[in-house]
Design goal:
- By secondary structure, this protein is of the alpha+beta class.
- Helices cover 22% and strands 42% of the residues.
- The protein has a five-stranded antiparallel beta sheet with strand order 4-5-8-9-12, with no helix packed on it. A four-stranded antiparallel beta sheet has the order 6-7-10-11, with no helix packed on it.
- Strand 6 and strand 7 form a beta hairpin.
- It starts with a helix and ends with a strand.
């Protein structure tokens, strides 16, 4: 009986393995991301070849953008790499629409520059957060958002044991956020614009100084 039970268990296990679903295949966007991040040109070609025959509108758009050098890889301070699709041109404030390749959603990245000055016992840091734009299309409305570039500066000095001075200048570019909307009388594809609105919020620069002494 014990031997028979074991045989039944083996058969059940084999059946479960046979009907278990295979690992979900990567989406076309993920395949393109893998190709972008791969350092092996042969591997890139293999990945792109797997997209042939797949019905996904994003494939053609992203491959065309890649050929036009509109796809970039943003590397964060921790080494994380994010493929980004830049759309359109920069506006007067230096903002440009940037979308993550992974989900076609707005991308925000920052570049941090740090330099130690041992002779002055201090460290200065520059943090630049990119500006970006994106649009939302609705049945009877088009919304547009724009965030301008932001620059932050900081300087920290440690002249003595337990004593430190930190000075910060935040948003020295006066980063603004703008929301525009165009409302249509009916369906936006076949009706005139009924109302245009624009809202802008300006954030002034701010300055802080902190002095700390510990014992």
């Amino acid at each position: 009986m014990i031997r028979l039970a074991r045989q039944y268990l083996k058969i059940a296990a084999l059946l479960l393995l046979a009907i278990a679903p295979a690992r979900a295949a990567d989406t076309p966007r993920q395949t393109i991301i893998d190709a972008i991040l791969s350092s092996d040109n042969g591997r890139k070609r293999e990945l792109i070849a797997t997209l042939m025959g797949k019905a996904d509108e994003s494939i053609g758009d992203l491959l065309i953008a890649w050929r036009k050098d509109e796809l970039f890889v943003h590397t964060a301070a921790d080494g994380t790499k994010t493929p980004v699709h830049l759309i359109g041109t920069k506006d007067s404030n230096g903002a440009q629409e940037a979308l993550r390749v992974a989900d076609d959603q707005p991308f925000t990245g920052s570049v941090v520059l740090t330099n130690d000055v041992p002779s002055l016992k201090s460290t200065w840091t520059v943090n630049v957060t990119n500006g970006f734009r994106w649009q939302e299309y609705r049945i009877d409305e088009v919304l547009a958002y724009r965030y301008a570039t932001q620059v932050d500066l900081s300087w920290e000095c440690k002249p003595g044991r337990g004593f430190s001075i930190l000075a910060e200048a935040l948003n020295i570019t006066g980063r603004a956020r703008t929301r525009s909307s165009a409302s249509f009388a009916e369906l936006r594809n076949n009706s005139p614009v009924l109302l245009n609105e624009q809202f802008a919020v300006h954030f002034p620069a701010s300055f802080f100084v902190r002095v700390r002494k510990t014992w």
